[in-house]
Amino acid sequence: MTKSLLLGNEAVARGAWEAGCRVISSYPGTPSTEITEVAAGYPEIYTEWATNEKVAMEVAIGAAVSGARAMTCMKHVGLNVAADPLYTAAYTGIRAGLVVVVADDPAMFSSQNEQDTRYHARGAHIPCLEPSDAQECKDFVRLAFEMSEAYDTPVILRLTTRIAHARSLVSLGERTEAALRDWAKEPQKYVMMPGNARRRHPVVEAREKKMAADASGMAINRAEMRGRALGVVCAGVSYAYVREAAPDASVFKLGMTYPLPEAALRAFAAQVDELAVVEELEPFIEDALHVMGIACTGKAKTGLQGELGVGKVREALLGVSRPLRNEEPVVPRPPALCPGCPHRAVFDVLKRQKLNVFGDIGCYTLGATPPLSSMDTTLCMGASIGMAFGAEKARGKAFSRGSVAVIGDSTFLHSGITSLIDAVYNGGTITVLILDNRITGMTGHQQNPASGKDIHGNPAPQIDLAELCRACGAAHVREVDPFDLKALEAVVREEVAREAVSVVVVRRACALLEKTRGACVEVEACRNCGVCMRIACPAIARGTDGIHIDASLCVGCGLCVQVCPFHCIKGGDRA
């Protein structure tokens, strides 16, 4: 049997292919993005980047209801967006298997909150599987499809960052074609008007009871007995931590964390003197055991926040402190906008004009960090426009004329359009800056409907953002190149003063998309005033003898040339 060293995400994609999945629709979101990118390499699977997670969920549900195995992948906050169709799909059930892959992000490496997807599984009354390594990532996908069809329900496959982005050996198999199931008209099952939904709800409850009863006999939920002194209940990456930290402990490894195998857990608890739960994020398993009347410890020892690890688990279970490492401390490297990033000029202008900035999710969120320090809020995808409009209604038009909403092209298409329509419809006076860098940059350069290409890089219909905004009712829409600093300054000043909804499409491709570099700038007779440092370009460094430009980083965007008040910086030909 062929083996390969795969990321957890790569293994999920492979598992979908081997299980005969036909359709995958997703929205990119770290740490889940690579699943759909890798799946796009399998010609037997139709793959796409959807405009947002709700749309992706609906596409996958449509494919499953019409008879094809389907999957959708997203990060934890993406499931919030997709929850509406998912919760009702639990009522309708599916015709062919439907797997929802959700990657949680303990410690928030690339997220704005620590959210536990297991609560969505419980709220929607659908099963949740949790693999512990890449091999299980692959195997559990097939199992999830089989469970989905056996129980007539969507199934969540929950990953975390360490599972999604860690490599381990995976035994590869061949693809098993899953026959396209027959289409049949069943409006009482699939049309969720109140009368039909009332009949479906008891079906959901009965199905959940059956899954809970069956859980204790599932091979993925197993006890590994090694002594009576200590027993640990765990799942996912926590299982790997426990096995290394406490090799002599007995372990109950959960492959399905909802519904829990109550009978098997009771039997395990009866065989150990002390029972502990090791789980990241919320005390989901611990609380469930307490409800069952099973005494255990958990979060009081491991804590509620951040990631766990072998050292932290060893200390929690055995009271053994983590050993001190004899090594130099790691020098922190804060995230920064890339050299030549078109967003840099925007935030320089917004800061100098002393505007209130309602921000959004994307690379440009780094506009909040020093020395740019020009973003005041970031909440969730698409929130900037609605928040700016809400602030106007709370504080009046005078405040609004000193404020802007900043949103990226992909984020605007994801969930900003409806907020713009709301502001127009309700007579707002806000100014919206759409930072159009021609790509979904934050998650690694995925295409979107405004980029002109599909997931495979093939030509696709391209949304004209300016025309789209006009169609939404915005009468004042302008376009500007951020590398034309004077024009950008003038446009922002004029539009902020306008007593109507106005949109500025700030258009310049991401610096990493272009294969060529412009001529590097040079410094002549620098007066060391430090003004150019305000744009926070990584290529610019300040010494006692003046400013220096690192030619290995400079892409020749020319922004610093325009910023220097004494014209000491020369060159740059990309502006």
From TrEMBL:
Q: Give the superkingdom in one word.
A: Bacteria
Q: Which reaction does it catalyse?
A: indole-3-pyruvate + 2 oxidized [2Fe-2S]-[ferredoxin] + CoA = (indol-3-yl)acetyl-CoA + 2 reduced [2Fe-2S]-[ferredoxin] + CO2 + H(+)
Q: What is this protein called?
A: Indolepyruvate oxidoreductase subunit IorA
Spell out where the chain crosses the membrane: none
Give UniProt keywords alphabetically: 4Fe-4S, Electron transport, Iron, Iron-sulfur, Metal-binding, Oxidoreductase, Transport
Q: Where does [4Fe-4S] cluster 2 bind?
A: 537, 554, 557, 560
Which residues participate in [4Fe-4S] cluster 1 binding? 526, 529, 532, 564
Q: How is the cofactor bound?
A: Binds 2 [4Fe-4S] clusters. In this family the first cluster has a non-standard and varying [4Fe-4S] binding motif CX(2)CX(2)CX(4-5)CP.
Role noted for this protein: Catalyzes the ferredoxin-dependent oxidative decarboxylation of arylpyruvates.
Molecular function (GO) terms for this protein are: 4 iron, 4 sulfur cluster binding; indolepyruvate ferredoxin oxidoreductase activity; metal ion binding; thiamine pyrophosphate binding
Which stretches are annotated as coiled coil? Answer: none
Q: Which cofactor does it need?
A: [4Fe-4S] cluster
Query: PROSITE patterns, alphabetically?
Result: 4FE4S_FER_1, 4FE4S_FER_2
Q: How does it assemble?
A: Heterodimer of the IorA and IorB subunits.
Q: Where is the 4Fe-4S ferredoxin-type domain?
A: 545-574
- Does the record's keyword annotation contain Iron? yes
What EC numbers are recorded for this enzyme?
Answer: 1.2.7.8
